[in-house]
Every structure is written in structure tokens, then in C-alpha cells.
Amino acid sequence: MYGGRLTAMYRPNYIVSDCQEFDKEEPHNIFVQIIGNMVQHIYTIDLSDFIWDMTGFPASALTAGTYAKCKHGDVYYKLSQFDGVGFYTYASYFEEVAYRLGVVLGINVLKQVSGTALVTLNNEKYVIPVCISKDYGEGVQSRCFLEDACGADAISWTKRNGLWEDIQGAFVLDYIINNRDRHEHNFEILEYAEGYRLAPLFDNGLSFSVSFCNDNFTLLSRNKPTNNFIGSKFLEDNLDLVEKKYTFSENKLYWITECLPLTIQNPVLRYISEAINVLAKRKIIEVK
Predict the structure, then answer these.
(1) Which of 176, 199, 197, 204 is nearest to 279 (CA)?
(2) How many other C-beta atoms are found inside a 10 Å radius of the C-beta of residue 149?
(3) Which residue ranges make up each domain of the chain?
(4) pTM, whole model, 2 decimals?
(5) Cys bridge to 80: 129, 150, 179, 287, which one at CB 3.0-4.6 A?
């Protein structure tokens, strides 16, 4: 049982005892967020014994633009991004929001479960957001990044190989969440005996906002250029390439966002609703 002080703990807006005990036999502990008269229980898992892949981290300090990752069996754990001051609070939660949107829209998005974890990094204890997923590579003969498979003409290559509908799904998802970072290494091609498939869409966390640490949470404009590999750098321009039609159940909106901290649930819900309305006007989505 760990019962020491979390001397380097960063967890804004959460009521947490600095002597919180983490029981190894029962790893899920409850953190409580209180906003007005509402209470949200956040389940936290004890990962303090895990050894994290610190690639990109110098030995002495955490640096900007890096993630700590760990794999146990076929389960992957990824911590939120660190910006040199604190952890990017919401990235892990946005991964789960993207997955839930994919479920509702029928878009193949990697299943990610978000929460908080007690971890040890560079001999310091942190309680920070984490997202958890499973390996999707069962039965795969080979895998590579889309850029390596198609070269410069990704649109023609994906059309020839039966993956164009999946790419259209990425355009729709990325517009809704305002994904800033669908670069060449965020598309993976899986080769099976029967042919190619696009891997479930992953690395969806750099979306919605650029709020770090204790900065005010601010949703980004969708009119700014992004780091896209396929199509336009402007997310709405890519909607012109979408031929597939999707349906969206309006009563699923709350379910999509209920995994978020209470402080940002309503702003993100409205942000998603605005995008759905645009897609409905363009007749890409039918709202039911």
C-alpha cells in the first residue's frame, strides 16, 4: 500500500487528500470533483509500479510535446501530454470522447477509456489523466504508416485499395472534434490475408482546446489550419470530399461527453452540437 505524500501531484479542480492511500489489492480509488452542487466521482487506478517509456524525455526533466507510454500484455496506457510546466489536462478524456463519437456515427475509432492514475515519473509521484486501450493488431501480417504505403497521393491510393470510406470517416470525426494533429503517422495501414484495412483512428487527444495546466479552458476555432496529412489543412474544406452519409442520434450527446470533467462537459457538448448542425446542413449527417 502506498501512503506517502504526492509531492509532485498536479490535478486541478479535484478534491484530493495529499495523503490518499492506494490499495494494491483494490486499485480503483475515488477522487471527487465538486462543481457547485454537483459531484462527479472519478475512478483512479494505481499504476505507480509501472515502468513508462520515456522516449523523448531527457533523463533529468520532462519536456514539451511528450507522452509517457506503457504496455502490459495487450493493454496500452498513455498519459496526457506534458508541456514543460504541467500536464495537458484533457487530452486523455478527448480520446474517449472521440471513441464515443465513432460509436454513434459508425466511424472506426480506437476504443479508449479515460480516467486518472497514480504514476511515478522521474522518481516523482503524479496523479494525472490516462487513457487505456487494447492492441488492435490481432491477425495482422504487416503494418505501416499510410505515408509509407501510398507516398504523396494518399487519396488515390486509399480509393484503389478500398479505404476511402474510412478516410471520409476521419474527415468527419476530425471536423467535429477539431483535431489539430492528423499527421502522416496518425494513419496506420494493416495488411491481412484478405487485403488492407485502415487501423482504428488513434491519437485524437489534441482536439477541441489547447488549454494547458491551469489556463482557462478555451475551445479553438475550426477556421485555423491543422497538421493534416490528407486533403486540406482546413478541416471544413475536407468535408467537400465526403460522399458517405452518416446518421447521428441526438439523444446520445450527453453519453458522448459524460466521461469529461464536469467543468468542461457543457462547453464541449455545445461545440459538438455546432459541428453536427454544420454537417446536417451539408447533408453529410442526418440527425435523428
Answers:
(1) 176
(2) 19
(3) 29-134, 142-287
(4) 0.82
(5) 129
